[in-house]
Amino acid sequence: MAKLIAILNVIAWSGFWAFGYLALTGEGYTGGQVTVATLLAALGLFAGIFAYLKLVRISERKGYAKPSNRMTRTQRDDAQSKWGEV
Question: Looking at the whole model, is its pTM more than 0.70?
Answer without folding.
Answer: yes
